Amino acid sequence: MKDFLAITDYSKDEILELLNLAIELKKEWKTKGNTPRLKNKVLAMVFQKPSLRTRVSFDMAMRHLGGDALYLSPSEIGLGKRESIADIARVLSGYVDVVMARVFAHEHILKLAKWSTIPVINGLSDYNHPCQAMADALTILETFGRFKDIKVTYVGDGNNVALSLMNICATVGANFVISSPPGYEINEQHISLAREIAQENQGFVKVESNPKIAVKNADVIYTDTWTSMGQEEESIIRSKVFPPYQVNQELVSLAKKTAIVMHCLPAHRGQEITDEVADGSHSMLFPQAHNRLHAQKAILLKLLS
Ligand code: CP
Ligand code: NVA
After folding, report:
1. Cα–Cα distance between 78 and 104 in angstroms, integer?
2. Residues paired with residue 98 on neighbouring β-strands, in sequence order
3. Domains defined for the chain, CATH in brackets
4. In this model, does residue 118 exceed pLDDT 90?
5. Who is most buried in 40, 53, 146, 304, counting CB within 10 A?
């Protein structure tokens, strides 16, 4: 596989291999520090939207591995505006070794990959967020030591983060339940595909619109913003629809006592998650964010080796 664009492009064995590599790299970095496995390699980071985690974790991943990273801001290269995506892809392919891009339209990342002769990594599109899902799976595996019989309940908008989380759960054989308000569910076609993948891996994917039922016996409760980047004009209407789907102490108390709470961040405290939960004893928000670094090192190494 030349690129890292979607979880469904990878087999269960390939995802598990990447997760094991991430665990190995994390341990190695914590004990030995930086290792120059990507010496002289350069990553170009193309952003059409803001970022904290994706930008800093990719940059630091390259530095820890002895390489370098270039940040190209939304105003700098004007993906598809100042210049065509096909031209940008061919130009960057002659300068750097790998590209990571965060785009509005998923088709833009596909086009970038099509025209690049170097690997392209999806740093989030309107459709999915596979690097986030890798860090999420890493966090779940580190916490529980397995995926089998782990119930992951996602509460909130059926967005890019939810889609990649569903697909990675289905791929590794964790059980996935999603609870979204009517009209904000993951599209039925994507649910069906994930169900097929889950079945092959002895897991299941379920839809349960009542969040209180959905979190029953959950090992993981996951949520994300009600309004994603690019949907800002819908934020008022969304803020009226989503409150019953807030992850608060009452909802968390309905899951297993050992349940962890996850959020890709940035969090909108008081909306999709309360302070009490985000800073409470079940919260894995910051270890999860830190795992972006380790999961992405594995992706970079795999694509560049
Ligand atoms: N979770 C995540 O992708 O965060 P950023 O938007 O800050 O990169
Ligand atoms: N769903 C959010 C994720 C941010 C990391 C968004 O797309 O804005």
Report:
1. 12
2. 43
3. 7-129+293-300 (3.40.50.1370), 132-288 (3.40.50.1370)
4. yes
5. 53
